[in-house]
Structures
1.
Amino acid sequence: MLAQGADLWLSPWLLGLLGLLIGSFLNVVIHRLPAMEMRDWWAFDVGDYALRDPRSWLALTGSAKSAPPKVFGPAAQAIEHTVEQLGTLSLLRPASRCPACGHRIRWYENIPVVSWLVLRGKCSACKTPISVRYPLVELLTGAMFAALAVVHGPGALTVVFCVAAALLIAMGGIDLDTTLLPEKLTIALIGLGGVAALTGWSGTTPVDALAGALLGYGVLWALGFLWAVLFRKKNAMAEGDMKMLCGLGALLGWQALPGLLLLAAGLGAVIGIAAMMFKGQGSQHRMAFGPYLALGGLVAMLAGPALAGFGSTLGEILLQP
């Protein structure tokens, strides 16, 4: 139960404005979080573990008698030195700068959407074009927050869905750029779904949330495993996709997953075929599935009972003797 005054603070107008501001921050997350994850990976997984820890060589060779090549030591030191030279990087530091000329972006150059339009999509110092994706992410987040307020009203469900929408937009943008889904975000979505179900904020029962989480992870794992067996290739589904759908299942319940997956797969197929036709990308090109799962999740949060009803009906049909 939310405090008195929620009608004002959770109104579509205020939530829409808040979404624009959060969308500006999500642009930072999309740009920086993969770099932060890669720095940690190089420093720890490669430098500290793969090159320095004898257990990694034992796991690779299966023989305790052989020793890792001597060149590994200097390589680990070089990696450590290089990462240290990169300096501090977090979601808050350093201040945003133009990647082309290093110009520090002032506060009035960072007003969501407005600054991009005033600057005509270019850096104020060097005139390097600024991607249109920045205002699009801001507009999408603002529009989604406002739409959720209209559909679900001023309640806990709207707050939960706004947090989930921000996570989905960030994950979709990162996966589109890097084909990676940071575990920090996928686990946060799973945790949000679980907490919201236990507190009753999401309207999903704990049983349905647990079933949705297991089904969300399991169905993508099974599809990827089947692909690997049939075509003797690597599992087509990345673990990040499995965790992402696991989180959506925990948040929305198992009933929403059939419709969500059909929507995501349909969008992926249409856009994938278009990419092969117009950009000449072959079947070997890896396509990120996260953006389509994100779009499916956003639609599911707005569609609500309609999508859940589709899943329940499909489940009854499949379970009929």
2.
Amino acid sequence: MQGTGVALVTPFRNGGEVDFGALGTLVDTVTQGGADFLVVLGTTAETPTLSKEEKADVVACVRERNAGRLPIVIGIGGNCTAGVVRAIEETDTTGIDAVLSVTPYYNKPSQQGMYEHYRAIAQHSPLPVILYNVPGRTGVNLAASTTLRLAHEFSNIVAVKEACGSLQQVAYILRDRPAGFKVFSGDDNMALPMIALGADGVISVAANVYSGIFCPMVAQAMQGRFDLAAPAQLRLQEAVDALFEEGNPTGIKTAMAVKGMIDGSLRLPLVAGSEHLADKMRALIAKYDL
């Protein structure tokens, strides 16, 4: 896996139920737009609001619609190590290529605690494991030294999704990582700078709605064609920033609703984007021909 992974939203109908038809169409849309792999049940999917049965149905829907075209990564994380291990063991991993597991949130464990958490996951996971560091959501930063310790000690910990916002931290990981260990940007607007340093791609929110521009941009950057990728980044910059003004996935669902891709409904405690945000999305989509 490298290039653009799309952190798929979970579309809901106005009544709150999962819109599997829209989800299937989204899989086709991002695949045609140039996505390299799919990520299900991540942050953008509103996974904490899904029941165990709905999670299984979402995975089954994506797996069936994908029909083996792209690798699939499944998000399984939490702040109870035993619970995460149990969830991984109980999940049907047929057709799934890797597990993306976020650092424990709320507990604020030490670096040693996070090391032990991921050690337990690595020892029990039947699939390769991708670390996910997003301090802005979890309240704790997985230090570069801990990421590297895990990467060197466990052959089935194969990558990290880095959303720390620090190119300095990313640079140390890229410099000292073992052969084959991949580094993905967890921030859309950090993708090109990270790829320029040697990163392997991005796990993207924006590609849900702008895949036809975003995915080729990442592919060009991966080929070293920053003369082509940079103008695309600048074209997308303002629209991508707007996706996060009212939080994720509120912004991405607002943009997708503006483009007629989904209903735009979210589940509490998240709420739909404001009319101001929707108007801004319409203006930016028109201004930059998105």
3.
Amino acid sequence: MISTTALPPAKMPRPEPNKRRRLLQTAGAVAFWVVVWQVAAATLGYGGLFLTSPLGTLEALARLLPTADFWHRIAFSALRILAGFLLAVVFGALLGAASARWKLVRILFNPVMQLIRAMPVASFVILALLWASSANLSVIVSFTHVLPVVYAGVAAGIADTDRQLIEMAKVYRLPLSRRLRYIWLPGIFPSFCESCAAAMGMCWKSGVSAEVIGLPDHSVGDALYRAKITLTTPDVFAWTLVIVLLSASLSAIATRLLRLARNCLCGEVRA
């Protein structure tokens, strides 16, 4: 009989030192730049007319949060920007897969994607206003600026898929469903996830920029522009902070959902 007293006590898992160090470094860097921001605002003076302080930004945000107009604008812009993002993900994935499969599709669409990448947001917004109303402008602009990113990510993922596994699947005549689950999806998903995470931040920047130019009623871009022309600098910073937080939060959510989808489709156990 083995004595239980000889067994070592169980140890609780501890956070990795490197992870804790990175968190502390990030927090320290953020705190440093907040202090720089505060010092710069105090140095410029003029009551925060040209540069409001961090406290002034938070006070403006606290004043905006309880209002129905604030949430109405968030919902108005978020629904349209996310609609453009989702449409771009679907069409970008389909076009990326088609371009990897057929050379003609790649020849036809590569110049279009390069043109969209190179075109300034302001130029495209002005052109889009000739074809659509300002209310739907952020959908169009978000769609067009996310499409090339997802297209390139899917095409790159297919190109990086192990060719030996593909040949083996042909030899053993694996069904298409198993080829997708065990070969194509694991090869495509890493690049696809990275492109979607990058595209989420891009679509918010381009969508709000379109709203600032088109000025659709009840949008975040319209509120940002109105705060600028009335010289309400704290509101400008507050709305900018909201845009940054929404972009970062939705990017994190999109990444998490894509990982869960990968685990379900590819049969992986851990997220």
